Amino acid sequence: MGFTQDEMRSLLAATGRLDSGAGLPPGEREELRGRVRGCEEGAQRRVSGLCTRLIRAEEFARRHRVSVSGRDAAPDFLAIRFT
Q1: How many other β-carbons are positioned within 10 Å of the β-carbon of residue 18?
Q2: 9: which of 19, 50, 69, 83 lies 20 to 30 Å off by Cα?
Q3: Is 21 left (phi over 0), alpha (psi -120 to 50) or beta?
Q4: What's residue 1's pLDDT?
Q5: Using CA atoms, how far apart are residues 11 and 62, in angstroms rounded to an integer?
Q6: How far apart are CA 39 and CA 33, in angstroms?
Q7: Which whole number is the average pLDDT over 15-26?
C-alpha cells in the first residue's frame, strides 16, 4: 500500500496498545486512535487511486482492442469484480 516501515511500525504499535486492554489515559487513547484513523484514511486514498488507475487501464485496453478488432469483445473486469 505504499506505507513506509516507520509508518507500519507506528500503526502496529498503536493498534497493539489499543488492543492490549491496558488502562490508557484518555489523551493517549485519542492520540493512538488518531494515528490509526490517519493510516486508514491514507489506505482509503490509495485504494481510490488504484481504482482510478484500473479504470483508466481498462479503458485504454478497450480502445486498443476496438481499434484492432473492430469490436469490444473482452470482459469488463471492474464489472465482474464489483457487481
Answers
A1: 16
A2: 50
A3: left
A4: 72
A5: 39
A6: 10
A7: 87
In angstroms, the CA 79 to CA 55 distance is 10
The mean pLDDT value of the chain amounts to 84
Q: 31: which 3 cell numbers?
A: 492520540
Query: What are the start-end ranges of the H helices in 1-83?
Result: 5-19, 26-69, 77-82
- Biggest CA–CA distance in the chain, Å, is 66
**35 and 10 Cβ atoms separated by less than 8 Å:** yes
Q: Taking a C-beta distance cutoff of 8 angstroms, is the pair 60, 69 a contact?
A: no
Give the number of other Cβ atoms within 10 Å of residue 32's Cβ. 19
Alpha-carbon dihedral 62, 64, 70, 74, rounded to 10 degrees: -30
Segment 70-79 shows an average pLDDT of: 59
State pTM to two decimals: 0.65
